[in-house]
Amino acid sequence: MCVSDMRLLSRAVRSAARQREWSRRHFWGWLNAVFNKVDYERIKAVGPDRAAAEWLLRCGAKVRFQGFDRWQHDYNGLPTGVLGKYKIQAIDATESCIMYRGFDHLDGLEHVEEIKFNKSIYVEDTCLERLSSIGNLQESLNTMEVVSCGNVTDKGLVALHRLKNLEHLFLRDLPGIKDRQTTVDRLQTALPRLDLSLDLD
Question: Is the pTM of this model over 0.70?
């Protein structure tokens, strides 16, 4: 095999490897979008809490129901029973694939007190803006954590000012935050009872 043939073969192998990597990413992006698709008929059939729990667990998150200490992470282990019996009290979306497309699942939830976004790579400003616009969550949510979500900027955090009962907010490792002091001032002015813990350096 001559040198020019080897170069040609080397280029072909590199091109195939890049194509395979793109295909793999495209597949996972497509699958995550499918997992986040909202089925409004399902919400009507099983109620908002059950439908939201199914969405969250399908995407790799966990939920805790009112009256339970244990986090539910097994989709097949979701409790059954009377429609509307189990109410989501807490959501832990650590390393999950939840994205804006699925946030309509949160609309009917009335008892969520705590949400954690930790290394949730698809969580971005539009997600926090959408979450903050949900009337039920404005009333019930009191504890929130946003950690290592690289797509969150000052704009998304400022939107949290609409969560009028938010008492505890923990922020860490958010490289998209550029105007830290202004963002903190706006949140604390809008939410005077807020205990804000920061680790953004």
Answer: yes
